[in-house]
Amino acid sequence: MRVTLVEDNAIFCFLFEKFLEDYPSKKIEIQLFSDGKKAWDHFVSIKNEPNLFPDILFLDINMPIMNGWELLENLLVNDFDFIRENPIYIVSSSKSSLDTSKCEEYSFITDYITKPIQREGIYKILDEYLNQKLNP
After folding, report:
1. Span 25-46, pLDDT tens digits
2. E strands along the chain, which residues?
3. Which class is 2-130 in CATH?
4. pTM over the 0.90 mark
5. Where exactly are the structural domains of the chain?
6. CA torsion sign, 1 to 118 to 41 to 109?
7. Measuring CA to CA, which residue among 91, 99, 101 is closest to residue 121?
8. pLDDT, greater one: 100 or 110
C-alpha cells in the first residue's frame, strides 16, 4: 500500500511517517513531499505509470510554493484519475469555515481532518481502506 503525505511541517511529517512504519496490518510505502509543487512534479513524472500513484493521499492545504488547493486543481484539470478513485484526506490545522466549505467543492475528497491527528485516527483510515479493498 502506498500512502502519500504532502505537508510542510517537518514534525508532523516525522510523526506521520513513524505511525505508518509501525502500522501492524500491512507494510506501507510512504511518500513525503514538503509542498504541492514537489508532489505535482512527482505526479507528472509518473503520469503514465498509474500503479505508482498513491492508494491514499493526505494533503495539507496551507503550504508555500503550491498549496493543497492548487495541487488538487492541477490534478483535476490534468485528468489524474487517481484523485477520484482513491481516498484523499485534507489534513490541516485550520478550523476556518472557508477551508472546510471549500473542501465541499471537491466531491472526491474523502474527509477533512483537523490536526493534531493521532496514531489511532490514521490506523482507522488505513484499516477502513484495507477492509474496502478486501470486501468491495
Report:
1. 889 999 999 999 999 999 999 9
2. 2-6, 29-33, 56-59, 88-92, 111-114
3. alpha beta
4. yes
5. 2-130
6. positive
7. 91
8. 110
